[in-house]
Design brief:
single chain, 306 residues, mainly alpha, Tetracycline Repressor, domain 2, globular, transmembrane helix, transferase activity, transferring alkyl or aryl (other than methyl) groups
């Protein structure tokens, strides 16, 4: 394979979107197992499998959408839509990535394979059917995130708290709604069939509803969930000095990070030009990056130090 074709292929695989698969790590993080090397290796392996399956689905989606992408202001510059990447090569790589990902999933356990297969079928169904219909397209995006989170559970045998699971669902719906809103305003309905069925006020209401639901679900998670029960030197010190310290709902102090993150994302999505690429907003906007990293750091301190 020539170097130019390889570079174009890597672009078509969209490695910048692999950030979505980091959700697999939520299970071990929130169950205090982040530094358990067995679970960390299992989850890392699952992460790479889902990266392969995700890239396969992106290639498949580009193949299905080839005609529409060629008239889209931004998507027409994608390797396939621009004609720079061979269609036959894209088909071959998409098939190989899907097969290698699913076969690799079998070496973990059968349930993980079923989740990986469901993830693949959902993306195929999304490309062929779901994305052409309003509401179903947003739900399809959201449930792909739920399957990622569920995959992390299957790999380790631990479970995410119910309200945290709902938070993931609502945040995914919020991001999907803002994405459709941006597409409707900037490109119009001609570039995506489902956009003919949406109205701006409807998508505004979706954004408001799912954003509010995300904050409520996460707040309930921080208040209802019991603190983890495992010892560290600092915890033992707190017990000796302030016996009631570990009973406090420390996770509540992370709520402002979530509120700011959602508000900042909505601001960028409505005022900027990158709402169609959520992964670009998350990885390029400094205030949003600081908010996410701050939230992550505080969560790690609360779960593994306090």
């Amino acid at each position: 394979m020539r170097r130019k074709q390889l570079i174009l292929l890597i672009r078509a695989l969209r490695p910048n979107q692999w950030i979505k698969n980091l959700i697999l790590f939520a299970t071990i993080i929130f169950n205090g197992q982040l530094f358990n090397w067995n679970y960390l290796l299992l989850t890392t392996g699952g992460f790479f499998i889902f990266c392969a399956l995700s890239s396969s689905s992106y290639l498949f989606n580009d193949i299905v959408d080839l005609r529409l992408d060629r008239i889209h202001p931004q998507k027409k510059n994608r390797p396939l839509a621009s004609g720079l990447l061979s269609l036959s090569l894209a088909i071959e790589v998409a098939f190989l990535l899907a097969m290698s990902g699913l076969i690799s999933a079998l070496f973990f356990n059968f349930m993980f394979f079923l989740v990986a297969a469901s993830f693949t079928m959902l993306h195929v169904g999304y490309s062929l059917f779901l994305k052409k219909h309003a509401v179903l397209d947003i739900l399809g995006i959201a449930f792909s995130f739920i399957l990622r989170a569920f995959a992390g559970e299957i790999l380790t045998g631990y479970h995410l708290p119910f309200w945290l699971f709902l938070t993931i669902l609502f945040v995914a719906l919020f991001v999907a709604a803002t994405k459709r809103h941006a597409e409707l305003l900037r490109e119009g309905p001609d570039t995506r069939p489902s956009l003919f069925q949406y109205r701006e006020r409807l998508l505004d209401s979706y954004t408001s509803m799912f954003g509010s639901a995300s904050i409520i679900a996460y707040s309930l998670f921080t208040f209802i969930e019991e603190p983890l029960r495992f010892n560290t030197p600092f915890k033992e010190f707190l017990i000796s000095v302030l016996p009631q310290a570990l009973e406090r709902k420390w996770m509540i102090i992370t709520i402002p990070f979530i509120m700011y993150g959602l508000m900042r994302y909505a601001q960028l999505a409505y005022e900027g030009t990158e709402a169609e690429q959520p992964e670009k907003i998350v990885t390029t906007d400094i205030p949003l990056i600081v908010s996410i990293l701050g939230w992550g750091l505080v969560v790690i301190i609360i779960l593994y130090v306090l």
